[in-house]
Amino acid sequence: MNSETGENPRGARVRPSDRRSQILRHAGALFARQGYGATTVRQIADAAELLSGSLYHHFPSKEAMLLDIMEDVIADALRRYRAAVRTTTDPIVALRNLVRGTLALIQANPDGTIVSVGEGRRLARTERFFWLADRTAEASGLWVEAARDGWEKGVFRPDLPPEVVAHLLQSTAWSMAQWLRSGRVFDPDEAADRIVDGFVRGIAVPGAYQSRDLGAVLAAARPSCPGGGIDPALLVPVPARIVFEGSDARTRIMVAASGLFAQQGFARTTTRQIAEAAGVPVGSLAHHIGSKERLISEMLAEFLDELRTGFAKDAADAAGPVEQIGAFIVRTVRMLAEHGVASVIQLNESAMQELPRRELDALFGHVSRTWRGAVEDGIRAGVFRAEVDPDFAHRVIRTAISAGSGVYQAMGVPDVPGLYQEIVLAGVGARR
């Protein structure tokens, strides 16, 4: 029953500031679970036990609630980041502190971080959220500062620009918000240690992987913005490759939908937009795809099945575990670039109730086991470090690729698979 007084159902008076916090908590949970675009003011009011009209006494719009949620998350992140770099002169410790701060924030406010990561990509370019670019640049700048300190002190590789190191660790840490959402748990201290150790040292033992100079791999990439961090515009996912010539209606619909899902999310994409982008009548969509939910389910299943089949071929062709992991990296990066589902997977919209979870879970599980098996084989063969945790390592690698490969492409890196191979296997440390 909705409460229109300043009291809760038990009769205790609720202060306006507490009521605002309650509304934001309910709004954040709904935004995180079903997406900002799919959440209505009425749903938020019902969750907060208010009438829709009463909600406007506290917030002028749904967008204002989103703004408050994101401001709180970013302000908290900046407080943690400033403290992280002030407390040490060791660049590796500084990066570890930054990762740890992000993971602790995710654990303390999982809904807010999921909303901020997902909506931040879309809103970075919009006029109403111009402040987001400045805050994002400041936050990213602290990561770059720590990485540059390591680069100048010779702790990190001279052929790996600080911006690349910073983006890799920052995007990986933030993407772990989805781990909590999917039911997985992690200890922030232990996870931060493993992430930084894995990427700094790499998973391969010295001599097991033929390292190479990254000059040609990075070429003329443009990794930074004037503020010193990653340009927020680059955080917008790269759309799918669009080739309409000679395509049938269903293929055009699939390609158009994948690009729209990547750019603005599943919930915000309408069937009319898909039809217009594909150049087909709106009325014919039902004949070709049935529904949006069925379409995204088919897209994800196709992507995962293609990945599974490709991994089987890579495993059969590879000479050993090092070559297997290298091949898996190449295939994953390329398929994320070719399919418009990369950001959808990253934002975990596949968790929607409407999708056939049994089929998708089986495909996700097969892909996960293939990665983990290659890492386990490498440890047994002595080519991967014995202290590497196979389950954690392969999930972090996949998270890093999913979160960052599109950004590296937008930066102009000509060989993104090669960059990830080098970072994952040899690491970002000065060891060559």
In percent, how much strand structure appears in the residues? under 5%
Please give the CATH class of the domain at 70-206.
Mainly Alpha
Could you state the order of secondary-structure elements as H and E?
Answer: HHHHHHHHHHHHHHHHHHHH
| Uncertain ranges | 1-15, 224-244, 346-353
The CATH superfamily of the domain at 70-206 appears as Tetracycline Repressor, domain 2
CATH architectural name of the domain at 70-206: Orthogonal Bundle
Summarize the structure.
This protein has 432 residues and is mainly alpha-helical. The protein contains 20 helices and no strands. Helices cover 65% and strands 0% of the residues.
Describe this structure in words.
The protein has 432 residues and is mainly α. 65% of the residues lie in helices and 0% in strands. The longest helix is centred in the C-terminal third of the chain and has 26 residues, at 292-317. It is globular, with a radius of gyration of 22 Å.
SSE inventory with pairings:
Blueprint: H1 16-34, H2 41-47, H3 52-55, H4 62-86, H5 91-108, H6 110-123, H7 130-152, H8 162-175, H9 177-181, H10 188-201, H11 215-218, H12 249-264, H13 271-278, H14 285-289, H15 292-317, H16 321-338, H17 342-346, H18 357-381, H19 390-411, H20 416-425
Overview features:
432 residues; globular; single chain; Arc Repressor Mutant, subunit A; mainly alpha; Tetracycline Repressor, domain 2; disordered N terminus; 20 helices; 65% helix
